[in-house]
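Before we proceed, please read the two lines closing this message. Report back on whether the structure tokens fit the sequence:
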Amino acid sequence: MENTFTAVYRGILEGVLSDTQYKSLCESLNGDWYALDFTSENRSLQSFSGDELKSHMYSLLDIVQKRNMVSVNYPYAYAKNINDPILIKVYDPMKCGSSCSTSAPDPWWIFTKIKPEIEELRGLFPEKSRKLFGFLKV
């Protein structure tokens, strides 16, 4: 398998299964990272150092924990190689839908050591001109 952004993004990722594991993932972050914020209208590519990313990941944890939810106390996170990650997808548990959802939720953030090409980024974001009519996108 090649190490392009798209190949890693679409590949098999390991799930973070506890807040302790989430914190271990945060502590393992080093080097330079690229970030995509899916909560903003301007989904631009940002740069983070390992320490900046660690701080940001802890701030996402803080947001989730302040909600005082009974069943979830950490962001849903998936990583390519959880012990030495090169890509991390983080999901907001409040926006992950239910068992009867018709589509997968957008990630909250994507962090990657592999700089995505512009064509790869275009593939992540659906065209704004598409409209949802019932269960069909046209």
About this structure: Helices lie at 5-9, 19-27, 50-66, 118-124.
